[in-house]
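Sequence only, no structure available. Ideas?
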Amino acid sequence: MAVNARRKTMLSVWMKNSAAHTIPQHPFHPFNASAYMRIKKLCHANRLQEAVDTFKHLLSAESKFIPSLMTCNLLLSTLVRQSRHESALSVYRLMGKKEIVPDLITLNIIINSHCQTGLCRKGKMEDSVKLFKEMVGKQQVPDLFTYSTLIDGLCKIGKTYEAFGLLAVVLQKGYEPDTITFTALMDRLCKEGKLREAKKLLYQMLNEGHNPDVITFTALMDGLCKEGKLDEGMELFYKMSNKNICPDVAIYSALIDGLCKEGKLREVRKLFYELPNKNICPDVVTCTALIHGLCKESKLQEAMGLLDVMVQIGHQPNEITYNTLINGFCKVGNLEKAKELLQEMSEKGCKTDLVSYNTLIDGLCKHNRIDEAQLIFYAMREQGLTPNVVTYNTLMGGLCRVGNLKEAIKLFKQMGENGQVPDRVTYTTLRDGLCKEATPQEVKRLLHEILKKV
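Reply:
I predicted one. Tokens follow.
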């Protein structure tokens, strides 16, 4: 999200600079100038649908004039900045129908639109690459913004090889990659667990005189902490201070999460309680990471206290926060509190999910409270949630432990009827239950019955 915000700002600045050099002093007919000002006024007032409708009217058969390219680019850039990507692409298609020839500014805006988060997952990156190739074919010379935007988009959809290939082209053409480009590549490498290559890229940035920002460091910090390389994470944390870069809440969240997983609560508390002194407000991710660490060490009273603090500072706990607490209370056998938290989730508008119910069912089964586990099982179905193989295996395991083989087999049959495919755990659970409770003849008969349903 932060990278996208920076890219939007970069687009605005780049648009203004490019316009200053490429637009003549008196570029259009008086009516066109009037249309430009009208659309500009609507864009500034955030009346984007009216702006699009006005543009469409200018292109209609009733209009004797065609809007200037500057008008088109103004509308396109505003729509993209406001994440109205489909509207922007619709305007761009209309330009093509009216044979309004796009310039480098237009094409960069559309490539940026394709590459932004969300559209990449809808396959729009292919359109970006296609448009890029068309630019080259029509003698349009891509600039650094074009390359940087494409590299960022390719990284987002996991095309690391292609992104680095494009970086090689950038360097070959004598362009100097910017911080956003390096950050996108580092983030991709970290997501793939290629931390050595990511660190190498950071040192390349530093050696070439680039100034990595907090987002660059966050990408690497997150990767290091997720891989359990906390010593390197702390080293990076201190390196930021030496570079006079103030860590943000994302950096602290990554460190706190990593330290909690290692059970280093002492270091975690020190980091967490220094946040106010740094004028940093912990967010939901930070608090949930610490709650996870506290639950892991069975410090549930402190975890509940932190939950109250979250609400007091204006953060609504999410399903991960609640699921972490439910799991913590189930592990110490406080099932009543776990049930209360599940109820609280619904009351406070926090969506319960399969993890919420599966965790509670597992806790109840482990304490042989099978009747309650079955009630929770049916309650989740009433909530519109479909039990998965984990749900069925957990409940069947509980039923087998208390010797209720009849219900366990009934549940197994129901599992198949509801489209859930039994796995190795399913069969092992049933086999162990049968061998423990039934005679050899009964085991043979029941296994035959089960196999008929497979």
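The longest helix spans residues 2-22.
Hope that gets you unstuck.
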